[in-house]
């Protein structure tokens, strides 16, 4: 064993001596043998769930480990900035979603990255609608009843979210806007810890993707108030949609995808994109996403260019909405 270790470190030294030679992306990846997938929110939340399912599926097709690392904070900006600054050699990618690649950069000028110029899109993974949920004991048997309750509560209530620009923050602010009240806004490193506090009755309400909030509603730890969509989801058939409750504007569906830092070679992007689409072709993985309340985009249409176009159009769509919201 010891002899082996010496041989290995000598080899590592030789590899180090070769650093003067131009390092190709594939040589670097071969050395480490793994890809880090940065998740810019806390473990156990909806972004993390989507990332880990995709990482497992992709690793099988790439023949390399895809390691999820959570770098949470600032509505996803902390981890996303880290990914933007990573070496563009195919060893680091980021789970980018509606918050990190549309909402946060618009709302937070300190985010430090450009969601379009600083990244190379790989492809979408899954989309999921948001849900408004309240702690047990509050009058929330319908969206109208809860809205009226919040409207009459001034600033006595609190809502939890994953930071400025997170979908959980923006979705709840859209709801708050209609109440005229100003509930206290409490930022967490992700919605997993926010939902823990909601279930424990420490905060009054929260908005999050169906993927992570559904089990807590089903088990009765929190109350589902509305699915922020036009129609219901088979995952929670008893939860009325916002539209059917008379609030068609309270509709927020979150997209999640993968991106490399700008400058990553096209061959690497193509290889990882192929692994992603092959993984997403697996009926078992599609079923798992569907059981969680997420939908997987159709294979052939899920190209890097289409994902780039979606990010561009989502930035254009959200900017005026967010300007109105913060006015
Ligand atoms: N995706 C969530 C949000 O945007 C955060 C999380 O995944 O924890 O609020």
Structure notes:
This protein has two domains: 34-126 and 255-325, Bordetella uptake gene, domain 1 (D-Maltodextrin-Binding Protein, domain 2, 3-Layer(aba) Sandwich); 129-228, D-Maltodextrin-Binding Protein, domain 2. It contains twelve helices and nine strands. The protein has helices at 2-17, 25-32, 46-62, 77-84, 98-107, 143-151, 167-179, 191-199, 210-218, 266-280, 283-292, 304-326, and strands at 34-39, 65-70, 92-97, 119-135, 158-161, 184-187, 205-209, 222-228, 253-261. Strands 1, 2, 3, 4, 5, 6, 7, 8 and 9 form a nine-stranded mixed β-sheet that branches. Helix 7 (167-179) links the parallel strand 5 and strand 6 (184-187). The longest helix is centred in the last third of the chain and has 23 residues, at 304-326. The N and C termini lie far apart (66 Å). Aspartic acid binds at residues 41-42, 45-47, 99, 161-162, 166-168, 190-192, 209.
End-to-end Cα distance, whole Å, is 66 Å
Please trace the helix and strand order, writing H or E for each element: HHEHEHEHEHEHEHEHEEHHH
Can you tell me the CATH architecture of the largest domain? 3-Layer(aba) Sandwich
Attached small molecules: aspartic acid
Largest sheet: 9 strands, mixed
> Into which percent range does the helicity of residues fall?
40-55%
The CATH C-level name of the largest domain is Alpha Beta
Oligomer: single chain
User: Number of helix segments?
Assistant: 12
* Arithmetic mean pLDDT: 91
């Amino acid at each position: 064993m010891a002899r082996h270790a010496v041989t290995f470190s000598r080899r590592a030294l030789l590899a180090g001596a070769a650093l003067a030679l131009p390092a190709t992306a594939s040589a670097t990846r071969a050395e480490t043998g793994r890809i880090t997938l940065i998740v810019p929110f806390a473990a156990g939340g909806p972004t993390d769930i989507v990332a880990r399912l995709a990482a497992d599926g992709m690793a099988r097709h790439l023949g390399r480990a895809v390691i999820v690392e959570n770098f949470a904070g600032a509505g996803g900006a902390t981890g996303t900035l880290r990914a933007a600054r990573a070496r563009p050699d195919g060893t680091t990618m980021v789970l980018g979603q509606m918050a990190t690649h549309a909402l946060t950069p618009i709302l937070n000028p300190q985010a430090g990255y450009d969601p379009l110029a600083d990244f190379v899109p790989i492809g979408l993974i899954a989309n999921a609608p948001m849900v408004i949920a309240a702690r047990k004991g509050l009058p929330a048997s319908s969206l109208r009843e809860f809205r009226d309750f919040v409207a009459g509560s001034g600033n006595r209530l609190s809502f939890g979210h994953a930071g400025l620009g997170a979908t959980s923050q923006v979705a709840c602010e859209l709801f708050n806007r209609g109440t005229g009240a100003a509930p206290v806004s409490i930022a967490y490193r992700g919605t997993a810890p926010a939902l823990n506090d909601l279930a424990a009755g420490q905060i009054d309400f929260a908005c999050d993707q169906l993927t992570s909030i559904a089990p807590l509603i089903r088990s009765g730890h929190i109350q589902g108030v509305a699915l922020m969509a036009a129609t219901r989801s088979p995952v929670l058939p008893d939860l009325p949609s916002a539209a059917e409750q008379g609030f068609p504007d309270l509709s927020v569906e979150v997209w999640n995808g993968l991106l490399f830092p700008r400058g990553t070679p096209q061959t690497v992007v193509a290889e990882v994109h192929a692994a992603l689409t092959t993984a997403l072709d697996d009926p078992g993985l599609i079923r798992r996403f569907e059981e969680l309340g997420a939908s997987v985009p159709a294979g052939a249409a899920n190209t890097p260019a289409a994902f780039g176009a979606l990010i561009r159009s989502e930035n254009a769509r959200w900017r005026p909405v967010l300007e109105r919201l913060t006015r």
